[in-house]
Each structure stands twice: as structure tokens, then as C-alpha cells.
Amino acid sequence: MSLMNNLSTSMISSSSSPFLAPISFNSRTQSVTVPPKSISLVKCVSTPQEQQTAYKTKVSRNANIAKLQAGYLFPEVARRRAAHLLKYPNAQVISLGIGDTTEPIPDVITSAMAKRSHGLSTLEGYSGYGAEQGEKALRAALASTFYGNLGIEEDDIFVSDGAKCDISRLQVVFGSNVTMAVQDPSYPAYVDSSVIMGQTGQFQKDVEKYANIEYMRCTPENGFFPDLSTVARTDIIFFCSPNNPTGAAATRDQLTRLVKFAKDNGSIIVYDSAYALYISDDKPRSIFEIPGAKEVAIETASFSKYAGFTGVRLGWTVVPKQLLFSDGFPVAKDFNRIVCTCFNGASNISQAGGLACLSPEGFEAMQEVIGFYKENTKIIVETFNSLGFKVYGGQNAPYVWVHFPGRNSWDVFSEILEKTHIVTTPGSGFGPGGEGFVRVSAFGHRENVLEACRRFKQLYN
Ligand SMILES: Cc1ncc(COP(=O)(O)O)c(C=O)c1O
């Protein structure tokens, strides 16, 4: 018997796979038996490693994906953390790196999700595909909670499975022929999705930038707001406030200038407000607080960092009906088309959670979670200040941006990991403008944050 035959009969026996075994459907009214799937279809699953790598399809790799550098930043940080744990299996590693939430979701919110979930087991409570744009009640609650007097209506809001997913869906709407600008440093999804869409040229190693992207430098010297007089016109401007990773929130005056810049250039701003509720002072929480923004801006937002929904998955994007392409066609109609084609709407259970977040008790509970992380931020800021570091961010965002002048970010990342077992994020992972900085996330249990700060003090005192 050949190896393949042997594999197909012994290694993939139908009894080892519920998928391959004959299936007996106990439907409510009758029992139906269907024949097993043909085993030959799945031989490759058990094919030995060397045969898998030897065989190549005739499909060429997407040349745009091939332009991407190394891994996406956060998987790379996770890989280094795993390697560190292999080296020091007993180390008490504290992760203040990736920026994932750690505190439990308030009960008033999970109860609503549990109720919706249990309802799905009943005839009355069951629902299947919902409206692709999201449930009406949630869209209405989002409109009134976040955009009360800003003229954003329920039908301008598209509920999603998170801001990152919507960033990519927006890129699909824009296509490969647009030019784009990003803050430098910025959340890596903007640049990477642009590369994947084919909007950029190759990565240029000497400057650590992709060709055809306008990098808007944001440094302590310019108050983390780009000098727009030196920024070239692009079709799309990604702008995140409060910014990940610098923690800087733009002022009303700065955003007014940004909106004017977009209008003068006929550009579209994609405004990422994923951390808006972390703002403590009077800075705008939405781009739509700026007059005229509805004609030039889209806003994307998320429950991830407000309610610990990083795993639950729920966000939203506002595409005002006033926003038009050059031919007068509404951007919202194309976004709707992409949402209907590439997405089938957010999970009904997540949406029940989102609605609970916006109830008076849910909103208060969500703000308590945010307040807890803001306390963590204060502890981290005070620690680095006491050690004589220049520290940015923190006040309006759950990120602390620590300056290590003249040093390589990955070197500092490695030094901190090696000597304190604390995972941070190297600033250069967010763009060349992040070189010399490390981002410390305030998402963590309090005792871990306190312990991390003790270790920072030991290392840098
Ligand atoms: C600026 C920014 N936008 C979007 C996201 C992704 O949010 P979501 O979990 O909703 O996809 C993150 C997550 O860290 C972020 O920092």
C-alpha cells in the first residue's frame, strides 16, 4: 500500500473525525443520514511536513502582501515574549505591551449578553442574520450617546465587529488608486492595510517608510500635531486622537486646522476615536464636534477599550451622508455595499452587550473600568517622571510614551524584557517617528502595574 493510501485509511479514519464520519441528523421531525465525505478530498491534511513544503501551487503570492515588513508589530512582540519565557520558564512576566484589556467586563453588560444568548435557544428569542448595518436600537443609542447634538443620525452609523476590521473595509472602499497620509508614529493597521491594498510602493529601508505614503511627523517638538504646511496633499488622511501610541489628544484648534486642510485639498479624514472616552479635559471626543467635518470625515470607534470587548468584538463607524466622492456619489453608499458584501453584521450577542454599555448603569460601569485604567496610567507616569524620564501621553489615553533619547527602541524593549521581565512595545514599531521611544500600556491588573513600576525603579534608579 502506498504511503498516501496508508495515510488515508489509517491516519484519517472516519471515526477520528466527527466531520468525516457519517452524520446522523436528529432533526425535530425526522432523522436523516448522509454519506461520509470522500476521504481523498482531505489527504493533504495528513501529508507529512516535507511533502507539504515540496509541493507548490501555481498561484503567485499577492505582491502587495509580500511588501509588508517582517510580522505585524503585535504578533512580533508576542513572539519575543514567548521566546523570553522559553529562556526563563519561571519568570513572572508582566505584559504592558500589546495593549489588550485585562479587567472583567461589568456584570450589567455580560448579563445582557447572557440573556440574549439564552434567548437564542428559544423560538421567540432566536434571530439569525440581522441588518448588516447593525440593530436599529443600538445605532440609535450610539447616535444619541456619542453624537447627541452633532447632527449625526442613526443611519449614518454602521455597527461593526471592531475598529480594525472597519479600517480594512474602508480601505476596500477606497481601492488601490488613492494616496494616503498617516501620523508618524501611528497604530500600524493604517499603513499595513494600505500596503495590502496596493496603495503604496515598496518599503524603503534607508528611511524605514513605504513609498507613496505621506508620514506626518508627530513629535514632542510639534506637540504631536503635524506641521500641515509641510504635509503633501493625499486623498485619505488617517488621524487617531487620542493617538495610539503617543497618547496625545488633538485640541479643538488643531482639529479645526485639520478639517480645513482636508477641505482645501478635497481629502477624506478617517478619524480613529477608539480612545475618545479616555479624554479627561475639554479636547474634542469626536471629529464631528468640528464644524464642517461631516463633509470631509469618517469616524471609527470601538467598545474594545471601554468595556473590555477586545474578545467580544464590537465597534462602529460613522459615514455621514454629507460625505461625497468627487463625482458626487455618497461614500456611505459604497461603504454600505462593502459591509453587505464583505461582512454580515456584528454578532447579535455582542450587540446586546453594546446596547447594555449604553444604558445608564452600563455607561457608568464602563466609565469605572476606564477610570481604573486611568489610575494605572497615573502610576506609570509618576514612576517614569520620578526616574527623570521625559514622559508623554497618559493624561487622555491608556498609553505612556517614554522617551529614551538616542537609543534604539527595540534595544530598550529588549533591555527592559531581559532585566525586568516586563513586555513593552518598541516605539519604532509604530513608524520611524517612534524611534527612541517605548510605549507602556496601562492595561493590566493593579498589582501587576505596581510590581512593574517597582521593577522599572530597580532598573533605572
Ligand atoms: C487606535 C486603534 N484603533 C483601532 C484599534 C482596534 O480596535 P478593535 O479592537 O475595535 O478592532 C486599536 C486597538 O488597539 C487601536 O489602538
Main features:
single chain; 461 residues; alpha/beta; Aspartate Aminotransferase, domain 1; Aspartate Aminotransferase, domain 2; 2 domains; globular; binds pyridoxal-5'-phosphate
Low-confidence stretches: 1-10, 37-48
The domain tally reads 2
Largest sheet: 7 strands, mixed
Q: Which fold does the CATH topology of the largest domain refer to?
A: Aspartate Aminotransferase, domain 2
- Helicity level: 25-40%
Cofactor: pyridoxal 5'-phosphate
Organism: Hibiscus sabdariffa
Keywords: Aminotransferase, Pyridoxal phosphate, Transferase
Protein name: Aminotransferase class I/classII large domain-containing protein
Question: Overview of this structure, please?
Answer:
This protein has 461 residues and is of the alpha/beta class. It folds into 2 domains: 135 residues, Aspartate Aminotransferase, domain 1 (Alpha-Beta Complex), CATH 3.90.1150.10; 253 residues, Aspartate Aminotransferase, domain 2, CATH 3.40.640.10. Helices cover 39% and strands 14% of the residues. The radius of gyration is 25 Å and the shape is globular. The chain starts with a helix and ends with a helix. The N terminus is likely disordered. The site of pyridoxal-5'-phosphate (PLP) has 14 residues, from helix 8. It holds the Pfam family Aminotran_1_2. Its cofactor is pyridoxal 5'-phosphate.
